[in-house]
Design goal:
The protein is an alpha+beta fold. The protein has 2 domains: 148 residues, Orthogonal Bundle (Arc Repressor Mutant, subunit A), CATH 1.10.10; 164 residues, 3-Layer(aba) Sandwich (Trna Endonuclease, Chain: A, domain 1). 34% of the residues lie in helices and 15% in strands. The chain contains 11 helices and 11 strands. Strand 5 and strand 6 form a beta hairpin.
């Protein structure tokens, strides 16, 4: 979205909001209100008074309602995030969680803030310095975006796969546990295993070996609820379906049934594993964990807990390949 001096004047115009069929999808009323909320600008405030508060999606909605009398329903949070904030972040205009880069991407505490050089630029709207400042800002945008990307990369969780290659996961949440699963669980309990899938809150398919899964008779649909980590233990032809649990989502009876159906027709035996960071975390879920599944705890990586049955860490008859 190209910011210009007409945005806030346009917002004062009577409704309906003027449309332009040739304008990009990100140039619309919601985007304009979002920008003004991020800058903490009320209708009568000059651009020189633009500020840089930390604001989440709900505070943005609340500001627009109070300052401009435009009320967005709570269920429009995703629309504002996807149609406005997301593009500002990708363009380098907004910073996500500058107060805590390690905050999980899907955290309810996620906040956004105008990038400092963008703030300095927008404070010059309507002045004689605007045009030369815009040219200078645009000339340096690639360097700015590269620097922001570098900072994001530094905050990510590096994970080393068994073959020595690396995958970078988004910070926080369950991803430190996912790292432990791949770097500690896999060598100990599935030596020589192939990591065929890793999920991430930012990128559901951050690591996917589609050909390996296809060879096993498995096709993953992006709409499906896929386990956090999938390992093919080639030595025994087992497919380990692992859920990393920090706050929700163990392999309970319902989840075991879902996974069994999702991987129906798999040419490898299915093994269901719930991974926890600590015993204390596991205690909250003990009553939910499915029989005939496994539990691994990162703080005690050399031990496994087997929930009943006649075999340890292995597929049961109902999930053996036909």
């Amino acid at each position: 979205m190209q910011v210009n001096s007409e945005i806030r004047n346009s917002l004062r115009r009577p409704k309906p909001w003027p449309r332009c069929s040739s304008a990009p999808g990100q140039r619309n009323e919601t985007v304009c209100y979002t920008l003004l909320a991020i800058l903490d600008l009320s209708p009568d405030a000059p651009w020189t008074e633009a500020e840089a508060p930390l604001r989440g999606i709900t505070p943005i909605i609340e500001f627009v309602a109070e300052a401009y009398g435009v009320r967005y329903a709570p269920n429009t949070r995703e629309t504002i995030r996807d149609d406005a904030v997301k593009f500002f972040v990708e363009a380098g205009l907004l910073l996500r969680n500058p107060d805590n880069p390690n905050r999980p991407t899907n955290s309810g505490r996620t906040v956004y803030q105008i990038e400092p050089s963008a703030l300095a630029l927008l404070r010059k709207v309507g002045t004689t310095a605007w045009e030369p400042s815009v040219r200078k800002y645009l000339a340096g945008r690639e360097n700015l975006k590269n620097e922001i990307a570098r900072k994001r990369t530094m905050a990510r969780v590096p994970v080393t796969l068994p073959d020595g290659s690396q995958v970078a996961l988004s910070p926080g949440g369950q991803n430190p546990l996912v790292k432990a699963i791949i770097e500690q669980f896999c060598p100990a309990y599935a030596p020589g295993g192939v990591i065929v899938y890793i999920g991430d809150t930012e990128n559901k398919f951050v690591h996917l070996q589609a050909e390996s899964l296809t060879a096993l008779g498995v096709t993953l649909n992006s709409a499906a609820k896929i386990p956090d980590v999938i390992i093919h233990f080639t030595a025994k032809n087992w497919l380990l379906l692992i859920e990393a649990v920090t706050s929700a989502g163990p392999v309970d009876g319902k989840r075991r049934k879902e996974l069994k159906e999702l991987f129906a027709g798999c040419k490898a035996g299915l093994v269901f594993v719930t991974a926890f960071e600590t015993r204390r975390t596991m205690q909250s879920f003990l009553s939910q964990i499915a029989w005939e599944s496994e539990v691994w705890i990162a703080e005690d990586p050399d031990h496994m807990i087997h929930f009943n049955g006649e075999r340890f860490l292995g597929p049961y008859p109902d999930v053996l390949p036909k």
